[in-house]
Amino acid sequence: MSNRWRCECSFRDPSGFVFYENGSIYRQINLGYQDNYDLLMGSGLYERLVQEGLLISHTETDVSLAYSENAYKVIKPNLIPIISYPYEWSFSQLKDAAIVTLKTQKIALDYGMTLKDSSAYNIQFSNGKPVLIDTLSFEKYKEGLPWVAYKQFCEHFLATLALMSYKDVRLDQLLRVYLDGIPLDLASAILPIRTYLRFPLLMHIHLHAKSQKHFANKSLGSNRVRHQMSLTSLVGIIESLESCIKKLTWQPMGTEWADYYSDTNYTDSAFEQKKQIVSDFLDRCKPVTLWDLGANTGVFSRIAGSKGIHTVAFDCDPGAVERSYLECRKSKEPLFLPLLLDLTNPSPGIGWENKERHSIIERGPVDTVLALALVHHLAISNNLPLGKIAAFFKNLSNTLIIEFVPKSDSQVQRLLASRKDIFDGYTQKAFEFEFGKYFHIERSVRVKQTKRTVYLMRRIEN
Amino acid sequence: MMSEGLPSINRTFLNEVYKVNPGKKVVLVFLFSFFILFWVVNCGTAHAYLNPGTGSSFFQMVIGVLVGIPVAIKGLFRKLKALITAPSNKNKETGDE
């Protein structure tokens, strides 16, 4: 089996592609992109964008590493700890990604270049901030041509953010269905009538959608490229989009989990003890990478982040993820990334052959998984048998820090209050038995003044 | 009501439009329509790997005129400011000598 393979998601742009070799990531730049790459590097644009934290940095490697014959260069980009997708981002994460794209485009124009695409998938989070990862997104600006990526920007970013802001924050999940952004006619149909009174939204979404519909299957002329759009107009479009995006807001209020920690059933000292248990367990297993599943606003995952562990905090509540991201942005936590994920229906593989965007499981495994106060939600709210939960966790990590909350706990009682208790198998003994099939229980500590137990488990190697 | 929703750059443009007298407004509308017609007749295709969409490209050209005005005004203002401040800076330099 070869240690070298081409990334399944890198096939649309003929300028080059991403490939992997011995665990390292490389980007081949094809001969057809030579002039644009030389302009990017020679004009000072690359240096400026990297300096401003807008573009991922790279080093040029030996061209003999090239994957195919028509290579001009091979570059080695800085590694991104985890690839995430726009349908896993909170409102502010998507908004920041949009602003990075527009800032990049504005700076590129100053250097005589332009972004030839503006896909939200070209943005990734590195050191807690969004950054453009596609070095081949730039091309020489030709005076008079409109922005080729305007439609894509409106569909990936503007329509999604407007729907989240004006209608429902959960509408970002449409991006899981529409791989290349939310169609503008759909966004226009869903958005409330009052958005017609917001001039930028009227312009960039509603009228834009009508223009697309009017010109569907129509050609506007010959193949001669004529110069019609001034640079001033192009800058005007970018500034108008930027102003529009900056004015879109969403407040995470009234969501299920965003206020979770003010609604717990244990005392401050028990809460502090639980933090200490997690900290001690982390010191024992010393992971480099960690996923916190059901992280809420990331109180416990931040313990890992503070220990120099690359941490991703997943939660299914958009409000909790938003709060977590805002906190992360404010306190500049480079190793911490909150993401939106419903564990009962996690991100699947989507796109061509279901391989363009990877499922969350394909993006693992990690060294350690943290799952506090999660199992009772999976078992009781989602009727998942303990055996299935254990089998799921065994594929995610080598070590597992997991909490068991028994039926007698008031939080579990609350889950059972409105339904019949059909969960005879939900016991601590059954939990230890099912997880014991795949994991060796290394430590278990009872959280004082509660009936909860936190376990440190290590996967049994076959 | 409507102006509440407008960003400052577009408000600036609309203020400029509403300030002009009705005769000038007709000329403005005529010029705008002429521009659109001119563009529709002459438009070509861009050879990019991404399909920019005919409707999106056309629409960009149309709104580009509108949203470009504040940028042009800002540019002019910057040039004017540079013109005004340049001689005084020069004098300052001479004075220092």
Provide a compact summary of the structure:
The complex is a heterodimer of chains A (462) and B (97). Chain A is of the alpha/beta class and 462 residues long.
Q: Could you describe the 3D structure shown?
A:
The complex is a heterodimer of chains A (462) and B (97). Chain A has 462 residues and is of the alpha/beta class. Helices cover 35% and strands 19% of the residues of chain A. Chain A has 14 helices and 16 strands. Chain A has helices spanning 34-42, 45-51, 91-110, 150-166, 184-190, 199-214, 231-247, 268-285, 301-306, 318-330, 375-381, 386-394, 410-416, 428-436; strands spanning 4-6, 16-21, 24-30, 58-61, 71-77, 113-115, 123-126, 129-132, 138-140, 289-293, 310-315, 336-340, 366-371, 397-404, 439-446, 453-459. The two termini of chain A are 22 Å apart. By secondary structure, chain B is an all-alpha fold. In chain B, 78% of the residues lie in helices and 0% in strands. In chain B, α1 crosses α3 and α2 (22-42) packs across α3 (54-96). The longest helix of chain B is centred in the last third of the chain and has 43 residues, at 54-96. The radius of gyration of chain B is 20 Å and the shape is elongated. Chain B starts with 7 loop residues before the first helix and ends with a helix. At the A-B interface, α4, α6 and α7 of A face α1, α2 and α3 of B.
Largest sheet data of chain B = none
What letter string, H or E per element, gives the SSE order of chain A?
Answer: EEEHHEEHEEEEHHHHHEHEHEEHHEHHEE
| Low-pLDDT windows of residues of chain B | 1-20, 33-47
Fraction of residues in β-strands of chain B: under 5%
Overall SS class of chain A: alpha/beta
| SS content category of chain B | mainly alpha
Helix segment tally of chain B: 3
Q: Tell me the strand order in the biggest sheet of chain A.
A: 12-11-10-13-14-16-15
